[in-house]
Amino acid sequence: MKLITAIIQPHALQPVADALREYGITGLTVTEVAGFGRQGGHTEVYRGAEYRIDTIPKLRLEILAREEDEEAVIDLVVATARSGRIGDGKVWSSDVGTVVRVRTGERGADAL
User: Fold this and answer.
1) Helix (H, G, I), strand (E, B) or coil at 102
2) Please, are residues 62 and 7 in contact by the beta-carbon 8 Å criterion?
3) What's the average model confidence in pLDDT over 54-70?
4) Which CATH number covers residue 44?
């Protein structure tokens, strides 16, 4: 089993989620996060004062997948979330030891 984690732009969520559903992924966790990379932060003006905002809002997606689906899911997320501009995000995967569906007690691939 693999845990595929992606940090993407908020506007890319719906296209990525739709593509994952179409591929056959049945679950996805989304968390609102903020951070910075090469894109850095930005400056805003509030009541005449300029403020430096060091973090940019993003979404963190977590997808549990079978090992044989790892590369396809990563490629799908990258292709769907890519705008070609700096700040599109990152995708990585991690090994998962055990997955259990709480409701039924199913384990492993059956729990997906």
Assistant:
1) coil
2) no
3) 94
4) 3.30.70.120
As to burial, measured by CB atoms within 10 angstroms (0-12 exposed, 13-18 middle, 19+ buried), residue 96 is middle
In this prediction the pTM is 0.85
Burial class (CB in 10 A: 0-12, 13-18, 19+), 11: exposed
Q: pLDDT tens across 20-61, in order?
A: 999 999 999 999 999 887 776 667 777 888 777 778 899 999
Overall domain count for the chain: 1
Classify each residue of 43-74 as buried b or exposed e, where b means 16 or more C-beta atoms within 10 Å of its C-beta. Answer: eeeeeeeeeeeeebebbebebbbeeebbeebb
Closest C-alpha to 72, from 24, 29, 18:
24
Q: Where are the alpha helices (DSSP H) in the chain?
A: 13-23, 70-81
